[in-house]
Amino acid sequence: MERRMTQFSPAPDRLTLRRPDDWHVHLRDGDVLKAVVRYTARQFGRAIVMPNLSPPITTVAAARAYRERILAALAESPAVLGGDGAVGDVSAFVPLMTCYLTDDISPDEVARGHQEGVFTAAKLYPANATTNSAHGVTDVRNIYSVLERMQEIGMPLLIHGEVTDADIDIFDREAVFIDRTMSRLVADFPALKVVFEHITTEDAAQFVVDAPETVGATITPHHLEISRNAMLVGGIRPHYYCLPIVKRERHRQALRKAATGGNAKFFLGTDTAPHARNAKETGCGCAGIFNAPHALEAYAKVFEEEDALDRLEAFASENGPRFYGLPLNEGTVTLERAQNAVPETLPGGQVEIVPFHAGSMLSWRLASS
Ligand SMILES: NC(=O)N[C@@H](CC(=O)O)C(=O)O
Ligand SMILES: [Zn+2]
Ligand SMILES: [Zn+2]
Fold first, then answer.
1. Residue 228 belongs to domain with CATH number
2. Domain count for the chain
3. What's the pLDDT tens digit per position in 209-231?
4. Does the beta carbon of 242 sit less than 6 angstroms from any atom of ligand 1?
5. pTM tops 0.90, yes or no
6. Structural domain of residue 242, as residue ranges?
7. What whole-number distance in Å separates Cα of residue 311 and Cα of residue 77?
8. Which of 85, 97, 126, 211 is 20 to 30 A from 186 via CA?
9. Bridge partners (DSSP) listed for residue 46
10. Element (H, E) at 144
11. One of 21, 89, 203, 271 is an active-site residue; which one?
């Protein structure tokens, strides 16, 4: 059995990491954007910003304009959580934009966006798989010419990996997507960089391990922390409802092994997905967990429980940029061991949003530098 230093040294009280990035965020727009963007910017150097606005980001011009709105919202946003952590770095936050793929999007538009430094990647939502995906792709063969271009120019493809067929049980949608779509896609485009986003099953983790080096995956803090029992036992908890839906405990265990096991194909992507409280606590609630406020603290908790704190930096700050072919960040962030009470709700400008871990106590806190 491999031995690592942490097994023999006392638990640290401070953890300094190269500044991490978040490879999957939903920042939304308007008032919600203004309310949430700073939570991501105070922890992360860069973030891959999902394009599922309404209407979705499908042109270079729309992505440029959205990037401007994100930076303007960040500049105007109030300090959060009693301070900004490494305040100087908040304004250095870089939103990395993505293009929402549709059945008829032009390969030229996608490629031009990448070449002009606007689209870092393109996102494949199977039509109707998740929030704001009605314009998504109905059959992956419809975008094969786009994928060919992306493969040629080295532009990563990000995938929400779930089938949407009505006859497939919601808990099986990711595993069936691997069989029906993912395996074939990876075989047909051997040089295309593919990120299997927010993986939730043992099947997906194993698929990524077995796949060529061109395939990576993001893992969220919530899929590492909760299984479907947490969502459904003792009452239904709408704030734990997200897509892909949380699975059985054995899948959570497999994801924890994948994230903390030192395989560079796995990296940090929170999938922070804010929805107003009244859109979650209702007869037909929205999918999405708002975990940006304490994302790093949540990952640190998991890595510590798995006795793998020494592997947190690679997962959070190195594997992602290396996969994307981007430089590592220069600065650092520090987590300190401290009682960190998570509020029941965070005032989100005019919108009230309930964070992941609401009302509970975390044992790490982002230090103010
Ligand atoms: N993850 C979610 O549950 N929701 C995301 C969409 C997504 O990432 O699938 C959202 O935009 O709300
Ligand atoms: Zn998704
Ligand atoms: Zn998402």
1. 3.20.20.140
2. 1
3. 999 999 999 999 999 999 999 99
4. yes
5. yes
6. 5-366
7. 33
8. 97
9. 94
10. helix 144-153
11. 271
